[in-house]
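Quick note —
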Amino acid sequence: MIKKALDTEIQFLPGVGPKRASLLARELGVSTIGDLVRIYPFRHIDRSTVTPIAEVVPDAAMVQIKGEVVSVETPPKRLKVTVRDASGEMDLVFFKGLKYTAERLVPGAVFTFFGKPSVFNGRLNMVHPEIDAVQADAAVGKPVILGVYPSTEKLKNAGITGKVMNKLMANALRMVLPETEETLPDYVLKENGLMGLAPALRNVHFPTDAEALRRARYRLKFEELFLLQLSLLKQKFIRSRGENGIKMPRVGEDFNLCYNALPYQLTGAQKRVIKEIRTDMMSGHQMNRLLQGDVGSGKTMVAVLTALLAVGNGYQACIMAPTEVLARQHFANISKYLAPTGVKTAVLTGSTKASERKKLLPALAAGEIGIIVGTHALIEDTVVFKKLGLAIIDEQHRFGVDQRAKLWSKTTDGLPPHVLVMTATPIPRTLAMTLYGDLDVSVIDEMPPGRKPIQTMLITERQRNSLWKFIKDQIGLGRQAFIVYPLIFESEKLDYQNLEQGYEKVVKAFPFPPYKVAIVHGQQANDVKTFNMDAFVAGRANILVSTTVIEVGVDVPNASVMVIESAERFGLSQLHQLRGRVGRGADKSYCILVKGDKVGKDSQHRLEFLCSTENGFDLAEEDMKMRGPGDLEGTQQSGLPISLNIASLAKDGIILQAARGYAERVLAEDPALEQPQNRLLRKELAKGKYEVKDYSKIS
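Predicted structure written out below.
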């Protein structure tokens, strides 16, 4: 964007210097003046209005008052200043710079004070407000809208306050704006009604009015999201134009045998998704498709039929699951579906015995096994396929890129296998379009008939006895119950203590005989875990006490009660995943959220929202609004694979939609961005900022 000023080290900006420079680099990642002007205000404050003291509401956002100093008191370690206007009076409290402030705020002088109001001992006050002098008879001055920038405790302690940030930003813009070059072609600006870059930068930091601020923010957000989508879609356009996929024109007899033997009709959504997959596999291009479907929407059935399409064309398919429990469960379900066909299937996990491997691996290499289900064990070098044509990955965010790349290297005739990625974590559309922007997305948005709604209830510790009675009644009817405890890594020891204590309480409330309680958690040896889990699945245990190990995919149709302890400690998506473990059989099912006595406003809202809906996509949207996109359970715990300076995937869905649609139009005319009018777009993408390095490069 800029040749000189942008690349100048931040320490040379007037008002910074070496000491502040190293602090800005550490706290905000700012090392050049260019970095600083791209730190945008997260909100703006209108300093053009003065609120009468009588109308100030405690704990409101920042307010500005204009008042005369009435008295100055100096109790120990602080300064208390009382000010008044025609409507009333309030106290101002200072803990730092006491001498300087006391000398400045003399009784009778008039100032404007700007800060956050609160109440102390029944009186309205403001701690450390900003102070600006005004003449007693003058207006406050011309309207000013000021930006509020991200900050940290260390920055504030070093004197880099909001006021200082505004000064630094003004200095930076003075240096940068005269040299600012446009980053988007003229036609993009015109067709989208966008403000130029220089005025957008000036108005996002120091807006002339509210409309200029709105247009500046729109321009900068659109640019970020447009370039991001352009980068993702360009990969997709290039791939879809290359003749680099296995052509699978046939349906095959096994597909028809399996399909015709199904005891129920597929939903319209399942049929639509299979059609989309089939079109991909016939196209001669490699399929890269993400299949999203809520818990229990029938993704496994789609996976089986997709695998049979590959088998019908003379290829093998592998289905990769993140845990051994899930891999074995998939294998059991798939074997049932494949019974009417002659397709041979097998399962391979880390605990598969050497004697079994001896038989299994040669059969796979000879092409005798049509479909293999497994965990990471499938990517070991010893695992060789005769003709791998399809890889299905369940809950793909749990596999690293390198692990997936190893699977793709097991190619046939140099062609990569078709790829179907499945997730039961509903991802808001805006996030899916970014994280998986270069994949085609299919959604199963319809539940199979006959699934009964799950009744979700919120209770407190005080209702514990009623809860135990309810579980006993359910067990009396022949049902089973899950009781899940949180496991948050920072406090692992404490959590295991809670789990152990919880287990003891459950065993005490449900003594043997007649009750049998099993326990499963991550620190158990694999064989112990498998033994306990199997006891519950087979119905030998009535209650399974566990951590979130059971979150993904465990299928126990007879379990009708899910109790989630300390429910406030889970995210919405995770609560929804856990709830999906029940309601899989013919019986009415219940999810009971047990919350602590002291629950924050956000947590309370989250729990009430879960009780109000079973729609995973609505829950995911809400989760993203509340937690921010980088924090979503089941997408990527460590934040997004791309950093956005101003756009928000949680709040800017409409702009993202517009930016993506426009990026598709640009690429439809110029897929490689080679035409002269797209020179600036090529230049911006070459900087590498918009490369999503993890998620979607799955092949």
